[in-house]
């Protein structure tokens, strides 16, 4: 039966998934992960951004894992004095995307599910953790946890996501040309990808 536009395949790890290792050129556990772009809303040092800070985490099973930190600012409120829920989902998108990038890139988020478990007061710090649980072809299954004020603090949110490996043509065809050109892509490359 064809999936309806409002339902997507499950985020549960398929039985034939394998645990992917970190790419040989990816940073090692304990090392920081620099922003993947100077303007990213999630990881760059921009005034309006989430300003997540990352390091590679140790994974007991030998897989890929990251740890990240985010300080909750007054301009991120939803309910008075509490973090806007959509920003936790945005933080998970970035953190789960970062751990996938330790395995293979580029990938994009296909589906992301957030469970909100406790309120998150402004002024506190979120400690996030994410792990790639398995891969089947282009599909990478990832889970994450957010804790309050300490790496072993109370769980305030959890997430599950599916990322899909894409080719560079995904960006060549869809991104704004001026942003691609700022990265050194020629107008001719963009035209060729779109013809
Ligand atoms: C020299 C060149 C320089 C270029 C410069 C560029 C540099 C860039 C480098 C680095 C960038 C890093 C960027 C980080 C970004 C951070 C993360 C984000 O914020 S991503 C933004 C939000 N996400 C999107 O905008 C995706 C929008 N969606 C899509 O584009 C498509 O839907 C896409 C690619 C996700 C899937 O489309 P399909 O055509 O490739 O794949 P199909 O055939 O539909 O599905 C493949 C399999 O996946 C499952 N699938 C697809 N969507 C699913 C879903 N929503 N839920 C569950 N399963 C799904 C399907 O059921 C299928 O499974 P079965 O192979 O049959 O088993």
TrEMBL record:
Family per similarity comment: Belongs to the THEM4/THEM5 thioesterase family.
Source organism phylogeny: Bacteria, Bacillati, Actinomycetota, Actinomycetes, Pseudonocardiales
Name by which UniProt lists this protein: Acyl-coenzyme A thioesterase THEM4
Superkingdom, natural source: Bacteria
One GO molecular-function entry: hydrolase activity
Regions that span the bilayer: none
Topology with respect to the bilayer: Peripheral membrane protein
Domain Thioesterase: 81-140
Primary localization class, coarse: membrane
Reaction(s) the record says it catalyses: (9Z)-octadecenoyl-CoA + H2O = (9Z)-octadecenoate + CoA + H(+); decanoyl-CoA + H2O = decanoate + CoA + H(+); (5Z,8Z,11Z,14Z)-eicosatetraenoyl-CoA + H2O = (5Z,8Z,11Z,14Z)-eicosatetraenoate + CoA + H(+); tetradecanoyl-CoA + H2O = tetradecanoate + CoA + H(+)
Annotated keywords: Apoptosis, Cell membrane, Cell projection, Cytoplasm, Fatty acid metabolism, Hydrolase, Lipid metabolism, Membrane, Transit peptide
EC number: 3.1.2.2
Species of origin: Actinomycetospora aurantiaca
CDD domains noted in UniProt: PaaI_thioesterase
UniProt xrefs under InterPro entries: HotDog_dom_sf (IPR029069), THEM4/THEM5_acyl-CoA_thioest (IPR052365), Thioestr_dom (IPR006683)
Pfam hit, one: 4HBT
Ranges where the record places region Disordered: 1-33
Localization, UniProt: Cell projection, Ruffle membrane; Cytoplasm; Membrane
Record field: compositional bias (Polar residues): 1-10
């Amino acid at each position: 039966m064809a999936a309806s536009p409002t339902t997507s395949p499950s985020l549960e790890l398929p039985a034939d998934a394998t645990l992917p290792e970190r790419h040989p050129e990816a940073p090692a556990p304990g090392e920081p992960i620099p922003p993947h772009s100077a303007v990213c809303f999630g990881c760059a040092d921009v005034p309006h951004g989430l300003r997540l800070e990352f390091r590679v985490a140790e994974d007991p099973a030998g897989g890929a894992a990251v740890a990240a930190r985010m300080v909750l600012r007054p301009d991120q409120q939803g309910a008075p004095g509490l973090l806007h829920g959509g920003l936790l989902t945005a933080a998970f998108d970035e953190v789960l995307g970062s751990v996938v990038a330790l395995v293979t890139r580029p990938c994009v988020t296909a589906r992301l599910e957030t469970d909100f478990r406790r309120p998150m007061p402004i002024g506190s710090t979120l400690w996030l953790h994410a792990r790639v649980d398995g891969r089947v072809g282009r599909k990478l299954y990832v889970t994450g946890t957010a804790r309050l004020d300490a790496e072993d603090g109370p769980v305030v949110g959890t997430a599950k996501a599916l990322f899909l490996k894409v080719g560079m043509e995904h960006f060549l065809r869809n991104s704004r040309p001026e942003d691609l050109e700022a990265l050194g892509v020629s107008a001719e490359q963009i035209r060729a990808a779109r013809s």
